[in-house]
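Section 4.2 – Deliverable D4.2 (structural model, holo form)

The reporting period included a commitment to supply a predicted holo structure for the target in complex with iron/sulfur cluster. Inputs used:
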Amino acid sequence: MKCRRCGEVAVIDLPRHNAAFCKPCFLEYFARQVQQAISKFRMFARHHRVMVAVSGGKDSLALWHWLASHGQPTVGLYIDLGIAEYSRVSRERCEAFAQRMGLQLEVVDVRQETGFSTPALAARVRRTTCSVCGLVKRYFTNRTARRLQVAAVATGHNLDDEASTLLGNVLHWQMGYLARQHPVLPAADGLVRRVKPLFTLTERETLAYCLLQGIDFLEEECPHARGATSILYKELLNRLELISPGTKHQFLLGFLRRARPSFSQAEPPPELGACRECGEPSTAEVCAYCRMLSGARRADDAFATKENKGGIT
Ligand code: SF4
Ligand SMILES: [Zn+2]
Ligand SMILES: [Zn+2]
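Output (structure tokens):
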């Protein structure tokens, strides 16, 4: 297999582009995709400081590596969810990466902030760990981004993530989510701008980037990801991609170009105020995070009272 650009031995084939690339040409292709996404969607300027939300996985570390090695001022954010071994190892990977690259990493420990690990919070409020995790991550990401006054928060969402989210949103006609599915969510009333510079690159391509750059990422998925519908949607899209290369790209980019504008006109973003308790943006008087946390504390108190009563009788 030869590189399409220079004729050297190729290290990766990309059927959706009908191409194969050697290492330098692949890295150039990767850089072009990221640069185009940043400039076409006006994600941020060269001098802006960007906060990269990192999980220790290949996508977020590839993104942080690329931005930092292309001169973008960055700071990393790792949220320790308290998910046993997974959180311990993923935190280690992020800290080691930041140290090796000489980059600033902010760590938010959910247990220290709330008194509970994310699974314990979820059990107290009788919700799934993933839904509480999503809420906690959105909350601390925005709060930290505001504190650090960064221009934008960048996440490592790739083409597979975005196409499978789109498939799920279409299958359930989630109008509000469809209106907001975009590589850029602009800043609004206390919400920091959010951007996805890797959204045109596949999981396989970010994996190749990490392997070629020697990035030590965490391969294991979070244990709560097992059986998630998003994984099923990814598998279905992979099967389609195999038969018809380029399907994911056409699906997502076609939606962004042709369909999304009508969804966002029909579903304008909700109005935001400041949470009475914590000051973070919220559609209600008290934000979802503060409501969840007080619910978890009430459940804990009720449990302790029962235990005490049990001890007396
Ligand atoms: S799979 Fe793990 S990291 Fe992902 S949302 Fe669920 S709990 Fe959070
Ligand atoms: Zn080449
Ligand atoms: Zn609040």
